[in-house]
From TrEMBL, chain A:
Pathway: Energy metabolism; oxidative phosphorylation
Keywords: Membrane, Mitochondrion, Mitochondrion inner membrane, Transmembrane, Transmembrane helix
GO biological process, one term: mitochondrial electron transport, cytochrome c to oxygen
Organism annotation: Gasterosteus aculeatus aculeatus
Main location: mitochondrion
Protein known as: Cytochrome c oxidase subunit 6C
From TrEMBL, chain B:
Localization in the cell: Mitochondrion inner membrane
Keyword terms: Membrane, Mitochondrion, Mitochondrion inner membrane, Transmembrane, Transmembrane helix
Transmembrane stretches, start-end: 125-143
Organism: Gasterosteus aculeatus aculeatus (three-spined stickleback)
A GO BP annotation: mitochondrial electron transport, cytochrome c to oxygen
Oligomeric and partner information: Component of the cytochrome c oxidase (complex IV, CIV), a multisubunit enzyme composed of 14 subunits. The complex is composed of a catalytic core of 3 subunits MT-CO1, MT-CO2 and MT-CO3, encoded in the mitochondrial DNA, and 11 supernumerary subunits COX4I, COX5A, COX5B, COX6A, COX6B, COX6C, COX7A, COX7B, COX7C, COX8 and NDUFA4, which are encoded in the nuclear genome.
InterPro entries with a match to the protein in the record: Cyt_c_oxidase_su4, Cyt_c_oxidase_su4_fam, Cyt_c_oxidase_su4_sf
Protein name: Cytochrome c oxidase subunit 4
């Protein structure tokens, strides 16, 4: 019946000292993964799209398809 | 029209089923109720349900999250039990093991081990859940036939095809989304 006295203090501090660095590390990893997995490819996709983009040609194609209200297709 | 025929058929089926099975369902329901109440009675008899209990006074419960209920289990002690309680006031090392157990049983109805005994109540619960889900399905079916308005024309295949074509014409999400998957030169999906 003589057990050692259990730890009574510093329990939260011990838990934080263990978990906070891991939490910060994982969050950093998540942010870096998102940056290089999502945002950089997306920026590149937009840049590549607009490199070869001819706005007038696209407008004329849409006009012929008849999606505008202010301009009619050239036939009518 | 297709919907009216389905409606009449469904109605007839419901009437037939209701007529044949209503007696069975009533018998099964009462059977379930009687067995569950018989099961409750054959458990340790609960002093709370046999007579009207005064809920303004402290009550005794066997609950996992309440290790020390508001009052002891046994209120009226016999003479032998009273003398045992007197002995409890002295040093406990002088109590035999049987006396200790007897004192426990005076204060408590079931041990935690007894409280945690697995019961078959879940089968009734799950069965009841399935039964009422099934009944709800019948209700929903009736609603589908008698309550729902006619189907919107936007669900037709032809309308959906025209909708897709219009989305492509408008260049919806041309960079990473919808129209980016369509090859405008060849007129087909990439």
């Amino acid at each position: 019946m003589s057990l050692p006295k259990p730890l009574m203090r510093g329990l939260l501090g011990k838990r934080l000292r263990f978990h906070l660095p891991i939490a910060f590390g994982l969050s950093l990893v998540a942010a870096i993964a998102f940056k290089y997995g999502v945002t950089e490819p997306r920026k590149k996709a937009y840049a590549d799209f607009y490199k070869q983009y001819d706005a007038v040609k696209e407008f004329n194609a849409m006009k012929e398809a008849g999606v505008f209200e202010s301009v009619q297709p050239s036939g009518e | 029209m297709k919907e009216n025929e389905w409606g009449r058929l469904a109605n007839k089926m419901l009437q037939l089923i209701a007529g044949r099975v209503s007696s069975l369902v009533a018998r099964r329901a009462t059977l379930a109720l009687t067995t569950s109440s018989a099961r409750m009675a054959s458990h340790a008899p609960d002093p709370e349900v046999t007579e009207a209990v005064d809920m303004s006074r402290p009550m005794y419960w066997d609950r996992l999250d309440t290790p020390l209920p508001d009052k002891l289990y046994k209120d009226e002690l016999s003479a032998a039990e009273k003398s045992l309680k007197e002995k409890e006031k002295g040093p406990w090392s002088q109590l035999t093991n049987e006396e200790k157990i007897a004192l426990y049983r005076l204060s408590f109805h079931q041990t935690y081990a007894e409280m945690n005994q697995p019961k078959s109540e879940w089968k009734t619960v799950v069965g009841g859940i399935f039964f009422f889900v099934g009944f709800t399905a019948l209700v929903v079916w009736w609603q589908r036939v008698y309550v729902y308005p006619p189907r919107p024309r936007t669900f037709d295949d032809e309308w959906q095809a025209k909708q897709l074509q219009r989305m492509l014409d408008m260049r919806i999400n041309p960079i990473e989304g919808f129209s980016s998957k369509w090859d405008y030169e060849k007129g087909q999906w990439k």
